[in-house]
Amino acid sequence: MLTSREEKELLREAKEVNDGFGENLD
Q: Residue spans with biased composition (Basic and acidic residues) (predicted)?
């Protein structure tokens, strides 16, 4: 199991990656 802190880190990284993809598509 991930700790809540690790989970937040992964979610934040995933969001940054998604934001990057969105910028590249524009």
A: 1-18
